[in-house]
Design goal:
Radius of gyration: 28 Å
Largest sheet: 7 strands, antiparallel
Structural class: alpha+beta
Shape: globular
Helix content: 25-40%
Number of strands: 22
Strand content: 15-25%
Length: 481
């Protein structure tokens, strides 16, 4: 599109540019404008509609010389800039798709095994619960928080937008597998990110962690939407009371059915002639879950009393521990090559949430604990602060909230009650004895919810070569929820 370069008033020049625009370009502009204003209406922020002026210039008036390179006499410049132009358009498209529609996600750990497997690549639907308007709008769309290799932040800290979720298709339901930002990932020790910062503080002391950058690295803060992505199953909903008794979840006093693929750790032992490798393969126990238990002479008497085989010379046939589903347990119970099968007991002292309150709880016998609900009012006490203090202070934005002499203070004023601003969820992995979940770091606020996995795009088995079973063909496009 070319325009008259002669000296004219702005009004005359504007009119000429409008008249010179081809009909096909007007049609494209109209379609883009309709989509843009529908998006603005969904966004609920009509100030964003001012960006339509930029669209008008791109498609119609052309005052901003965005395509200057097309008129360059240098073919190298035209070639390079054509690639830059295509990449920028692609990144903008990816930004909007990943922010408002959905994105891919890789399963990094076995916390949801066998429901979702390590090596699954998922399509996560963000529209199902309603996409969030980004807290950090200026970020590179293909990286969560850190550029690989160069190890620098992939986002700008400013501007920061308040939490706002657009209208979705529904709400989180019990049993949904959900992708969310890791709540305890707000503060990060850059050199040691597993365990998380708060676990490091429990283990080594906050002062020691903060004052030893050579060991733990720089201590940084991450906005909600730049925290690491986790995936777990929603087992407790806002306003419910949750308790776990012998591994069974109870909601408001009633037991709920276990997921079909719920797993618990079991000890087991085989006969000397057993084809252990074949049994593992048939059961689908991954290499990472085949753990041989170290046995010392001090353990022999305890093993005998529990029914494990101990040879007369004091040697012990290998004892293994693996996470097993109910169906896998039945298979091993019926296998004559298995001489002993026993569920691993849970023990106290696992640094469960909330610290202090949960000291006598275990991962299998946990709670009872109430899950905060938007609009619900809590009577404050030292015990309530122990459970919900982090929620009130860090998740609900009351940064100065504290407790002194048994009294809770918010905004410098003593408070007897607190009304929650958001809904919260209790998330757990199906691999119950090998999942760092809400039992360890607490509730998931609604503003941390990312979306729901819908399909497995492709799945790779890292225990096998690419051309010898490395691609799990039977999982491609499998329902992920």
């Amino acid at each position: 599109m070319t325009h008259d370069k002669s000296r004219k008033s702005f009004g005359e020049d504007f009119a000429d540019r409008v008249k010179a625009t081809k009909k096909t370009r007007w049609i494209r502009f109209a379609v883009v404008s309709v989509i843009f204003f529908l998006w603005v209406a969904w966004l609920g922020n009509w100030w964003v509609a001012l960006a339509w002026i930029l669209l008008l210039d791109i498609y119609i008036t052309g005052y901003i010389p965005l395509t200057w390179w097309k008129n360059s006499k240098n073919p190298v410049v035209r070639s390079i800039m054509s690639w830059v132009d295509a990449i920028l358009y692609a990144l903008v498209l990816v930004y909007f798709v990943f922010t408002f529609i959905g994105q891919n996600y890789q399963i990094p750990s076995s916390s949801l095994e066998k429901s979702l497997l390590v090596g699954d690549y998922l399509w996560v639907n963000k529209m199902v619960y309603g996409p969030r308007v980004p807290n950090t709008p200026i970020h590179f769309p293909l990286v969560q928080n850190t550029f690989p290799i160069i190890n620098t932040k992939s986002y700008l800290d400013k501007p920061q937008w308040d939490y706002h979720r657009l209208a979705g298709l529904g709400k989180v339901e019990r049993g949904d597998i959900v992708v969310f930002n890791f709540p305890a990932g707000d503060t990060v020790a850059t050199k040691v990110q597993n365990p998380d910062y708060y676990s490091l503080c429990k283990m080594y002391g906050r002062t020691n962690v903060n004052n030893n950058p050579q060991t733990f690295g720089e201590i940084i803060y991450r906005p909600v939407d730049r925290r690491e992505n986790y995936v777990k199953r929603a087992v407790g909903l806002p306003g419910e009371r949750l308790k776990i008794v012998d591994g069974v979840i109870h909601i408001n006093g009633k037991a709920i059915p276990q997921p079909e693929n719920a797993q618990f750790n079991y000890y087991y032992q085989f006969t000397p002639s057993a084809d252990v490798q074949r049994i593992w393969e048939e059961l689908g126990i991954s290499a990472d879950d085949r753990h041989r238990v170290p046995v010392t002479p001090e353990d022999l008497e305890a093993l005998r009393s529990l029914g494990f085989t101990v040879n007369p010379d004091g040697t012990v046939p290998p004892v293994y521990v693996s996470p097993l589903t109910a169906a896998m347990v039945k298979t091993l119970e019926a296998d004559k090559q298995v001489t002993k099968l026993m569920k691993m007991p849970a023990t106290e002292g696992e640094m469960l949430y909330p610290a202090g309150v949960a000291d006598s709880w275990t991962r299998s016998d946990y709670g009872e604990i109430w899950i905060p609900k938007k609009g619900a009012t809590l009577r404050l006490s030292p015990r309530a602060w122990d459970i919900y203090g982090r929620v009130i202070r860090d998740y609900e934005g009351n940064r100065d909230a504290t407790i002194k002499d048994g009294k809770v203070y918010i905004d410098g004023e003593p408070r007897d009650t607190y009304t929650f601003k958001m809904d919260y969820y209790f998330m757990m992995g199906d691999n119950r004895d090998n999942s760092l979940d809400s039992r360890y770091w607490g509730f998931v606020p609604e503003d941390h919810i990312v979306g729901r996995p819908e399909r497995v795009l492709i799945s790779f088995d890292k225990d096998k070569s690419l051309f010898n079973g490395g691609i799990r063909w039977n999982r491609i496009l499998k329902d992920a929820n």
